[in-house]
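Sat 14:20. Reprocessing the chain from the morning session after the first attempt stalled halfway. Input below, unchanged.
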Amino acid sequence: MTTEQGLSPTSYINHHLTQLTHSVGDSPFWTLHVDTVVVSLLLGVVGFGFLRWVVSGATSGVPGKRQAFVELAFEFVDREARGIFHGDRHRFLAPTALTVFVWVLLMNAMDFLPVDIMAWFFTDVLHLRAFRAVPTADINTTFALSLVVWLLMIYFSVVVKGWGGWVHELIGTPFGSHPLLWPVNFLFNLVELVSKPLSHSLRLYGNMYAGEIVFLLLGMWAATGLSGAFFGVLLGAGWAVFHILIVVLQAFIFMMLTIVYIAMAHESH
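Finished this time. Tokens:
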């Protein structure tokens, strides 16, 4: 679908950025993004089904290419987790970080699919009114992931320090445990608590959403004529190569922040 088919640039972009939604109840708040849920679940099944298939066929001898790839990925994540977290719950943290990295990487990689071909397939072939194939370009996905990490951080804080120790940390640090300072300490720590899931989610969402917009702008340029097609394809290929770095880097950063936040939950002030 291009601007040559009667769509203005604004309509063209809005068409590609429209979610396939399903309202639950009368309130607009309870709106399910069907495309985000379906693609996320499918990528989860594909990604971890592949890892399970490799692990089930692993041998102690010379590993094959698939096994070597998975072992390298796991050792990389395990090394990063050990470098930040030294507690006895490392066996939980490393698999969690690997899960986050693989899943986010697969969801980010959906941005490499040609936007016009995907729009044609979902709207003209499957007759859907809209469909977005990049789950991490949806703020609901990134915020849900960061919220789970945030809840894990609070859970481990309570497990390690106890309810009393956790509450004391909220109201007794960093300015001292005098009762007059409790409100100031709590507000200070509340800002830190709220900012973690927001920054964690918005960083990934912003980068993937911006990448999607750039691909759409290049697609519109390619539809303006012969010269536009030449430069659109040329710059699109260059941006795709650069976007590979962004896709991997954002998955890595999201994983590292997951490790850091959970590791911070085990620290005492």
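Residues 3-264 form one domain.
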